[in-house]
Amino acid sequence: MTISVLQRVAEKPAWKVEMSKLLTDPLELCRQLELGPQDEAELRELCEPFSLRVPRPYLSRIKRGDLNDPLLLQVLPRTQELQETSGYKLDPLAEKEFTPVPGLLHKYKGRVLIVLNGSCAINCRYCFRRHFPYQEHQIGQTQWQLILDYIAGDQSINEVIFSGGDPLTSTDHSLSKKVCDLDAIPHLKRLRLHTRLPIMIPSRINETCLDWMESTRLQLVVVIHSNHAAELDDEVKAALARLGSIGVRLLNQTVLLKDINNNAGVLRDLSERLFECGVLPYYLHLFDPVQGCAHFDLDRQEALRIRNELQTLCAGFLVPRLVIEEPNEPNKTLL
Ligand SMILES: *Cc1c(COP(=O)(O)O)cnc(C)c1O
Ligand code: SF4
């Protein structure tokens, strides 16, 4: 019996093991990072509506004993989350209006976004989907068929975007079946994945994953979400190199976050590191006004000033497009 259990453990891919070891206890996080005494009751209250979730590989990149570490600030809840701020909404992008079939957003011409599942390897405190009703968006077989019918019925769609949650928290078995179905729709050209997994758990990019990615006729684009160069250690670089080696185009999007990366030098270092990792900067998002996250926000003037300074610090192709997502615009709005 012990042997069969061991065998089963051995069969579990490394990334799945990491997913089962996510750090979820805020006090353990503070202990491991030597952050000193914390208000236990408050931390627990803060994690009630949106839990703490930190993968171990990410944890290892956070500086010990530094409450202002830019990686830590993305995962550790702060008191300000409890403040109600007027103008900050639960559904900032009014996404419900663009959902012709449950689980599918069709907001922009030519591409549809599929909310594959609600789970992530990390809970980012600034997440604009933190209030999203994911339970209504679990994709079962019937729903998947409705999604396929919708895409097949609209010749103007040439790109499918897998989003979430994080689409790479789905198993390769499930992903490869879905990609096979999409392959069969002739007017589709591209498949795009928006994911933080190559950063959070680099072992996610394993042979099984590369297999289905390589076997689809669709051109693959992977958009990673990195906010700071310190997230991109050599393990992450190796995972990204594996994706690059099979011809996946790699892009990055960043959210401009107060105290984390609202500084042209920090953004230059991020762009430079991304390029070393084979990734081009794509978008720099102005923060969405989501309730409980006002402390991450900065005003447009400051954002523009940072972007303009960034332009003076690095090559033009390393400057991401500064955008804001407005609920009823036909594209993300360039600033
Ligand atoms: C951001 C987004 C896209 C992709 O937009 P691009 O400008 O092509 O990156 C597509 N659909 C939805 C709903 C989006 O929010
Ligand atoms: S990985 Fe993306 S969807 Fe998941 S919590 Fe972070 S920002 Fe939100």
Walk me through this protein's architecture:
- With 335 residues, the protein is of the alpha/beta class.
- Strand 2, helix 6 and strand 3 form a beta-alpha-beta unit.
- Strands 1-2-3-4-5-6-7-8-9 form a nine-stranded mixed sheet.
- The protein binds pyridoxal-5'-phosphate and iron/sulfur cluster.
- Iron/sulfur cluster (SF4) binds next to loops.
Kindly report how far apart the N and C termini lie. Answer: 62 Å
Gross morphology is: globular
Order of helices and strands: HHHHHEEHEHEHHEHEHEHEE
Give me the Rg, rounded: 20 Å
Report the biggest beta sheet as strand number plus sense, adding barrel if it closes: 9 strands, mixed
The SS-based structural class is alpha/beta
* Count of individual beta strands: 9
What is the topology?
Layout (H helix, E strand, L loop, with lengths): L1 H10 L2 H7 L5 H7 L7 H8 L8 H4 L44 E5 L2 E5 L25 H12 L6 E5 L8 H12 L6 E6 L1 H4 L6 H9 L3 E7 L8 H12 L3 E7 L8 H13 L3 E6 L14 H12 L9 E4 L8 E2 L1
Parallel strand pairs: 2-3, 3-4, 4-5, 5-6, 6-7, 7-8
Antiparallel strand pairs: 1-2, 8-9
Helix pairs in contact: 7-9, 11-12
The site of pyridoxal-5'-phosphate has 8 residues, from strand 1 and strand 2.
